[in-house]
Amino acid sequence: MKFLSMYKTIERNTPPTAEEMETMGVMMKEWFSSGKLLAAEGCMPSQFGARVRQTKGQFAVTDGPFTEAKELVGGLAILQAPSREAAIEYVKEFMTVAGDGECELRQLYEMPPDTRTK
User: Fold this and answer.
1) Residue 116 has pLDDT above 70, yes or no
2) What are phi and psi of 30, to 5 degrees?
3) Which of 11, 17, 42, 109 could form a disulfide with 75 if both were Cys (CB 3.0 to 4.6 A apart)?
């Protein structure tokens, strides 16, 4: 089963420290090797982003930073787990390294293998 984990936290406008990068790097390397992490990316500060909203066919674009938001997506990961419960445990382990915040965990739809090549 595949899961999307979105890490939400208070926005920080400084890059991670060398120690934080090393600690996260060790965990990610272990997770990639074990097969439980399929992809992961961190997000740049919201000042480099935009929000695009559609209402009744009309688009509105709001440039960052998003100062009104209390928490923003700081990064995402695609996890491979045997169950929802296992994915929750992976997220708990991740958050002990990442720190305070919240992870939204969503199971991803997967196409049956026989329909992917048609």
Assistant:
1) no
2) -60, -45
3) 42
Tell me the Ramachandran region of residue 101: left when phi exceeds 0, alpha when psi lies from -120 to 50, beta otherwise: left
> Which three-class secondary structure state does DSSP give residue 29?
helix
On whether the CB atoms of residues 50 and 61 are closer than 8 A, the answer is yes
Q: Are 73 and 93 in contact (CB under 8 A)?
A: no
Pull the structure tokens for residue 76: 């995402």
Quote the CA–CA distance of 45 and 37 in Å, as a whole number.
Answer: 23
Residue 8, strand partner residues = 73, 102
Token representation of residue 111: 């196409």
Whether the link from the prior residue into 16 is cis, omega within 30° of 0, is no
Q: What is the pLDDT of residues 21-75, one digit of tens each?
A: 999 999 999 999 999 999 999 998 899 999 999 999 999 999 999 877 778 999 9
pLDDT tens-digit map of 64-77? 998 777 789 999 99
